[in-house]
Specification:
This protein has 7 helices and 5 strands, in the order βαβααβαβααβα. It is of the alpha/beta class and 185 residues long. Strands 2-3-1-4-5 form a 5-stranded parallel sheet, with helices on both faces.
Length: 185
C-alpha cells in the first residue's frame, strides 16, 4: 500500500490514543484530531451517566469524522486521528463513509466510487488491568472508568485485510512512537 493519508490511533479508553496521536502528529508535521472533541453533547451526557454508546450513537459521529478526513486529505493534508474505532464497521466508516451514502456523479452519467481515505490503523492494545489502572488516575474526562469493560466487550481488534500495526501499551511512549515511525519508513 502507498503511504497512508491518515493514521488512525485506536484502542479502548485509556490506551493512550490522544497522547500518542498528538505526539505523532507533531513529529510528522501532520494535522491532529481527537475524535472525542467531535462527540455530540448527547453522547457525552450518555457516557457521563455511565451508559455505553451503541451503533446508533456512534455512526453519525463517525460519518462526521470521515467527512473531516476526506476534506483534509483532498486538500493535501495528512492527518493523525485518535479515535476508539472499536469495531471493524466503525473503521470502515472512517475509510469509506456510510454504505447508503449516494455515489458521487462525475457529470458523465457514470457514478464514481465513494471517496476512500488511505488509512493505517495503529492499535494500542493492553490488558484490562493495565488500562483500568490508567483510567483511575485520569482526571476531567467524560468517560467514566466503569465503561471500560463495555469497550473491551465491543472491541474487534484489527485483522487482515485491514492495514494495521498493533503496539502494546506496556511499551514507553518513545518506543511506541519509534515503532510507528519505523512502520512509515
Amino acid at each position: 500500500m502507498a503511504a497512508p493519508d491518515v493514521l488512525l490511533v485506536m484502542g479502548v479508553s485509556g490506551s493512550g490514543k490522544s497522547t500518542v496521536g498528538a505526539l505523532l502528529a507533531s513529529e510528522l508535521g501532520w494535522k491532529f484530531y481527537d475524535a472525542d472533541d467531535y462527540h455530540p453533547e448527547e453522547n457525552r451526557t450518555k457516557m457521563g451517566k455511565g451508559i455505553p454508546l451503541n451503533d446508533q450513537d456512534r455512526i453519525p459521529w463517525l460519518c462526521n469524522l470521515h467527512d473531516i478526513l476526506l476534506r483534509d486529505v483532498a486538500s493535501g493534508q495528512h492527518v493523525v486521528l485518535a479515535c476508539s474505532g472499536l469495531k471493524k464497521m466503525y473503521r470502515d466508516i472512517l475509510i469509506r463513509g456510510k454504505d447508503d451514502t449516494p455515489l458521487k456523479s462525475d457529470g458523465t452519467g457514470k457514478d464514481k466510487q465513494p471517496a476512500e481515505v488511505k488509512l493505517l490503523v495503529v492499535h494500542l492494545n493492553g490488558s484490562f488491568e493495565v488500562i483500568s489502572g490508567r483510567l483511575l488516575k485520569r482526571k476531567g474526562h467524560f468517560m467514566p472508568p466503569e465503561l471500560l469493560q463495555s469497550q473491551f466487550d465491543t472491541l474487534e481488534p484489527p485483522s487482515a485485510p485491514e492495514n494495521f500495526i498493533q503496539i502494546s501499551v506496556d511499551k514507553n511512549l518513545s518506543e511506541i512512537i519509534a515503532t510507528i515511525m519505523d512502520t512509515l519508513r
